[in-house]
């Protein structure tokens, strides 16, 4: 995701003239760059300008970045280069090349690129699972998250938290609908529900709704300041961004001040369990206090713990919420799919019992709807940015170690060469077994909403449970239809907001199901 999941750079477009003033000083860079890139056989790409490369073409195009990339595919094919100021981006959009890079040459393509200064501050100098270079720190942090935080047995322990969050979600929807002639906002409510689950898994302490809102608001503020700026691509311009740099420091401070009290509260609960009977018996945070990191003597500091907890919360909140928003939109657009799903729910759990996560495995149609959802609407259109650990080759081109290697996911999951009717939202393709796809990529790649290979999303299993469970509960309780403002129809336009959400946030009408 990195730079790619951001909004376009158009607000900075006026700075184009300022940038021109720097062209001269950038000439030295250009000469060095040219002599370096001459020796390299980089993938082709649209011709750019000196120093700034394709940066202003992208920013001035008026298109979202993913749209800009999508429009280049017919001309430049499955692997091409964009030069964004000092960054070289290599964009890969074919299943075969993704498989070759991330599975066959998985170890070489498993690292991350250098970060911009803002990200370095929030990642505590790459001390997170997602940002760390391929090496001992990544191994220690990832192993801890997968084996201690997100293992199957740990996931079971949080069943209660999931059930409570589902109850709260249904109540919130009922109350909102009652106050608004049946209308509810989908993304906001789904996001909140998953955030509650992740918060309780992360901190293991009780929180009232006000505190939950406060942490959520803070996380959103962090995402906003993480949006890339022009000086991330043209560091020469950084003197113009001192106000923004100050803001970054303030937000980081605010993040620490919001989360450290929760960390302290958990420490206290662990020290005095008899006084904190409502605290969970386990939390992700517990695994961080004395975590051993290969090659390091000290366990994580409080600011590092803040960063690791934020990663846990951020990784699963918007991604899952976005998935639910698109799922509901598709069910409104296709009432037959919605009825069929409801019929499956009724025939699996009956009318009096609420769907729980054990039922999900017995619902092949629900599973097919969710898989089709992740194919057609991968919540992030780019996987996180990769980098190679050593100079490499892909499709005969050079991949230098300082390049950002980006995987454009819809290029794969909507490829007409590997999918029939890829444009169509059609769960039937998976339900009937007409088409199949191994989501982990091990047996071959056809879609990769969670990435594949060594850096595959460690939250895959949990996230799949969350999406299935939430969707099943929402459909079990309510019949969903379009809002009268859109004449009952849904507008499927997209926009980038960390994840790719609906351009017009989905407002739906809900009607409780007759029991
Ligand atoms: C529907 C929900 C989710 C989607 C679509 C999703 C998608 C992704 C993608 C595309 C990547 C990048 C893989 C790569 O680098 O090639 C990723 C990485 C990651 N995800 Fe998720 N994710 C989801 C939920 C979660 C959850 C619930 C968590 C944890 C609580 C999580 C934590 C992470 C972490 C830590 C990484 C970095 C892994 C690494 O660099 O080794 N994600 N995810």
UniProtKB/TrEMBL annotation:
Q: What is the annotated localization of this protein?
A: Membrane
A Pfam family this protein belongs to?
Answer: p450
Look up the record and report any one GO term of the cellular component aspect. membrane
UniProt keyword annotations, A-Z: Heme, Iron, Membrane, Metal-binding, Monooxygenase, Oxidoreductase, Transmembrane, Transmembrane helix
Can you tell which superkingdom this protein's organism belongs to?
Answer: Eukaryota
Required cofactors, per record?
A: heme
Q: Which GO terms describe its molecular function?
A: heme binding; iron ion binding; monooxygenase activity; oxidoreductase activity, acting on paired donors, with incorporation or reduction of molecular oxygen
**Segment forming the signal sequence:** none
Query: Would the keyword Transcription turn up in this protein's UniProt record?
Result: no
* PROSITE patterns reported in the protein's UniProt record: CYTOCHROME_P450
What parts of the sequence cross the membrane? 12-33
Q: Where does heme bind?
A: 457
Is Membrane one of the keywords UniProt gives this record? yes
Query: What's its membrane topology?
Result: Single-pass membrane protein
Q: Which family does it belong to?
A: Belongs to the cytochrome P450 family.
| Protein known as | Cytochrome P450 77A3-like
* Species of provenance: Dorcoceras hygrometricum
Q: What is the lineage of its organism?
A: Eukaryota, Viridiplantae, Streptophyta, Embryophyta, Tracheophyta
